[in-house]
Write a structure and sequence with these properties.
42% strand; Immunoglobulin-like; single chain; 514 residues; rod-shaped
Amino acid sequence: MWIVLGAGGCNKKPTDPVFPKDNQFPPQPRDLAVSVDDQQATLIWEIDSPAAVRFYRIYRRDTTTTTFAVIDTSLDRIHLDKTVKNETKYFYQVSAVNAGGFESRRSSSIMATPFSLASLIIATGADYTSQRQVQLKLTAPSRTALMKLSNDVFFTNASWQRFESTVSWILSFGDGVKTVYVKFRDADGRENPQVVKDSIILDTTALITELREDTGGQIKKAGDAIHFRLVAGEIGGRATVNIFSGPQNILLFDDGTQGDQVANNGVYEVNFVIPQDTQVLQGKVRGNFVDRVGNMATTVSAATQITIQKPPDAVTLFQPVPVGSQQNALRLTWSVSKDTFDFANYSIYRSTTSNFDPFRLTPVDRITLREVTTYTDLSLQAGVTYYYRLVIFDLAGLTSASSNEVGARTTANLPPTPVTLALPAAPDTAALSLSWSQNNDPDFASYRVFRAKAGDPPIDPARQQPIAIINSNPASTSYLDRGLGRNKTFTYQVYVYDNGGLASPSNPVLGTTR
């Protein structure tokens, strides 16, 4: 009997450091077919342009491995394999090699099970099944009338039944290797002494028995690697892990690569490199596994948790401005930090030289509330240019890059503009009325009115007290001096004081009461 199967094989064109062109490779063999007999299998195939082929390579594997190996070569499009055992599944592929030594893609793979006049194939030769109910394909001598099927070699409780080439069968309970046995009897009642069997792995359950990660409680950051290990106990499945509020569907491997230590041992591993902009606080790790037949394991959580810190983003610092009329203060403002996760503080750095490195200095202050984005720097020197930078710290001690640098000059502390004092008027007996021009300086603090009697020393604010102090309102430009006595002459001056403590005197004027 000839069998033709169209399943795709794992074929690769040979690599070559000079990168050969496609037309240098021979065509791919096609329509691979196999016939089986007692301890032998015969392969035949077709190919386009057979004259371009020097010889063919024969590849084979059995159910103990997933890798095809070369077992022979052939000059013709036929090959007889006599190195096989009955009741054993084999898989074949064929490639073509031309005179230049270039090998074609391999043909599709085909399965064959040699037998001695009789055979049994479970589930079309599959290695695994997730269902206990399977289809059996039976082959027997032409005069076979009865058959006896069993899940054990002793045929416990089995009975003879009419022979059929296709039978639905229930495998025994429990996952693992399941073997079905069959005996045949012909129409004359003669029993074939050979017991035919086939095996398949029943897999109805997927399990995760262990899930680990190796951070050990240490805080990780972008670029660091985390090793994940998931033990499922079976090969060929798909294992992933999810980090709560972090990366999802991280694929683990069981092929000896990317952190997996041993290939095909049912232990899935990966060295996962943390991507940029990842931030996780005490994130749980959950493992998922789907086996090769589609069974889905119950999700398992690791006993430990993962913390991944991301350095804060830098903020933008805006141009400082003087504070009101103060010459010794500048007000800073900046954009709010995006680091809502673990913000610690804004650290403010100041220098009198530009292009400074803030990380070499001690901050002038720290703001611990993320929502506060303004700061007034007091006790500066007047008429000096100051430069500022701002750095964000998080709770893990990570820092942002420095903000942009900004600079501003404090106002020079000049004496206030003096006012002009008019000649006093005598509106009442023993009283004089004073008036003066308004001071419009932005750092105005007060007017202070001084008086001296005729014959006294000149007015000196350092040695005498003012008779009146008018604070805060520069528009208050008059004062009535009462209780002076009649026919008395006095000298007056009005001093203007600014917020920096400097003062300027008005012109002196004389006034006489009536």
